[in-house]
Amino acid sequence: MDFRRIESIFLIVFIGLNIFLGISYFQNHQVSLATTRSGNSEIMADIRRDQIKVPKLSKKAPTGGYLSSQRNVALRSSQQALTNQTITYSGSKILTLHSQLVTPETVKRADRVRFLKNWVKTSSNVRFGDQYEYAPGLSSGNHIVFAQNSGKLVYDRRAQLVFSFSDSRLIGYTQTYIETLRVLRSNVSLCSEQDAIITLYRDNELTNNAKVVWTKLAYSYLLDAKGSTVYVPMWLVGVQPAGSKTVTIKHLNAITKTVVKTAE
């Protein structure tokens, strides 16, 4: 049995086990969830009583699945394609392209996002730039983040553009890229946006007087297995504690409805 076949069998067994656990969880709670809609309403009332501010939340259960990728060197050929940039690389596990602009671009702070949305579309500025979209929840200060979306939105450090500004100058960026995402399993029922917030509240991830600033359902890292990386749908929730300007991002596996303490 060759290595590729062993790897495929390992991944299939793992995904099957994870799906089984997820289905078991939802089956075990199906009656409870069906009969305690008022219970969810009560929990949402508790959230409001604790002065936790939340946006309007969807109760609709979306679908998703499991994706995988393999290490790639697609960015390695970028040095010849990009202009006005000094290019270096780092990382063996996650290849990262580092770009320093030879002549920085002058951009007003208020125009940064609009400028970058157009700038990334030029192939001599950014490789595969049309496969990225602005990610406001991941951006802060002088760092503007774009997340890769090649048909599946990925919020993960393995698939990002991070642009760096100094005052009114764009000075460079870093880039990671997933060349191919393979669907391992699709049409898996996911927890709703409201379920995600309720789970975070029950697990004491939302403190009194906190504010849920934003939510996003996207694919994120689950594990590495024999040269492949597996991604699952996750609810990412930006939470601002009381009296703080810092927004902390919470991760919730949307299949198993479990809090992910550390996103790799």
Automatic annotation (TrEMBL):
Keyword line: Membrane, Transmembrane, Transmembrane helix
Domain of life: Bacteria
Gene Ontology CC terms, in alphabetical order: membrane
Signal peptide range in chain numbering: none
Pfam families per the UniProt record, alphabetical: YycI
Chain segments annotated as transmembrane: 9-26
Ranges of residues in domain Regulatory protein YycH-like: 35-255
Name of the molecule in the record: Regulatory protein YycH-like domain-containing protein
Protein species of origin: Lacticaseibacillus nasuensis JCM 17158
